[in-house]
Amino acid sequence: MMNPTIIDFHSHMFPDRLAAGAIASLSEKAHIPAFTDGTAADTARVMERAGVSRHVVLNIAVSERQQRSVNDFAIASNGGRVIAFGSVHPFSEKAVFELERLREHGIRGVKFHNEYQDFFVNDPAAYPVYEKCAALGLIMVFHGGVDLGFEPPVKASPERFAQVCRDLKYERMVFAHMGGYKMSDQALEFLTDSGCYIDTSFSADGKLASETALALIRAFTAERVLFGSDCPWEDPARSIAFVNALPLTDSERSAIFSGNALGLLGEQCSGSDTL
User: Which residues are 83's β-sheet partners?
Assistant: First the structure.
């Protein structure tokens, strides 16, 4: 088995002064332990230990008033091993301004979390912001499926997201957690022909059966799958081991671990890893 370069497309960290409180609050809400203290330094330590070369940090502005500070943090932390994405609330009057500001500062994507931001992914009122992201060439990453700590209905189900894909016809979108945490059947039914990417985040240690993960990769094709851990909520080393244990070819593994990410980020064509 070859040892490809690894880009983790799904991680989180927080400003030092907020990290302890954020980790404690989120861990309590979701009833899951954290594998870092949430700071940039500890995240870097865990990533280096796991053999991750670079990682995408998915920041989330849960409200309009958080947008400026969240995106300031993204802009300040972007560079080196960190590929920081910003965030806007789709119902904010300042969302378009923030998206333009992010693009001007070299930010390549944004994260939407429909549970924490409290909107349905296929709400037509969110489409102008999606369309602005597309016009700017920004990658859009969406939380997919169930989120621990939130009650039904699921605001970002695969079926709802499939409608967004049909309406936007924009392929630089990622539906996280293998197309929908705890909603793999819907992902297989509605998303495989959508053109979107999925990531492997929060799948290790029994959270997703290996057989189901392999079925999803085969259905979407390896060229549409990105490696992600969801650090600090999953240890990147365990996430890597989960993917490595799947019966994939070296070419498929290389595409998932970094080739597809490089292509999506506009750094080189997807497929083989030549970093």
Answer: 56
For range 235-242, the mean pLDDT: 98
Is 106 inside any structural domain?
yes
- First vs last Cα of the chain: how many Å apart? 18
Q: Considering the domain boundaries, does residue 274 fall inside one?
A: no
Per residue in 39-68, pLDDT (tens digit) is: 999 999 999 999 999 999 999 999 999 999
Please say whether the beta carbons of 217 and 192 come within 8 A.
Answer: no
CATH of the domain at 240: 3.20.20.140
Q: Has residue 198 got a pLDDT over 60? A: yes
Q: Which two tokens stand for residue 253?
A: 């593994």
Q: What is the average per-residue pLDDT within 195-222?
A: 98
Count how many residues are written for the chain.
Answer: 275
Task: Locate 93 and state its tokens.
Answer: 């009057």
**Number of domains observed in the structure of the chain:** 1
pTM over 0.85: yes
Which residue segment(s) compose the domain that 235 sits in? 7-264
| Integer angstrom CA distances of residue 27 from 31, 94, 107, 226, 259 | 5, 30, 28, 25, 32
| Closest among 5, 165, 138 to 84, alpha carbons compared | 138
